[in-house]
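B., you asked whether I could sanity-check this one before it goes into the benchmark set. Here's the sequence:
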Amino acid sequence: MELRFAVKKLYRTLIFIGREYPKGGTFFRDRCHGAFMRNKDEEDPEQIRMLISRGEFVVKELEALYRLRKYRAMKKRYYGDETYEETIIKNLKKFEDLPPDDKR
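And here's what the prediction gave me:
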């Protein structure tokens, strides 16, 4: 009975996280549902635990994917097309061009 609740919790978590999937929530929900239906007849507790751990790995990977997507969007918003190193060099050159009294 404990494994049943763990499977349900994993399914709910995946469906919730999948709403932001790049190809769309419906695409992810259909794939997730298909994966769970393929393994619905599994009876071996060890095999079920292994599948749950694989599902938890997928959750972590999706969270990392979303964090990376947000990071890239923020980086693009602030730095545009130039790289971080180019921005640092440009700012250092501006600082060097200041008169000696204005340097802090």
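One thing to flag: The chain has a mean pLDDT of 87. Otherwise nothing jumped out at me.
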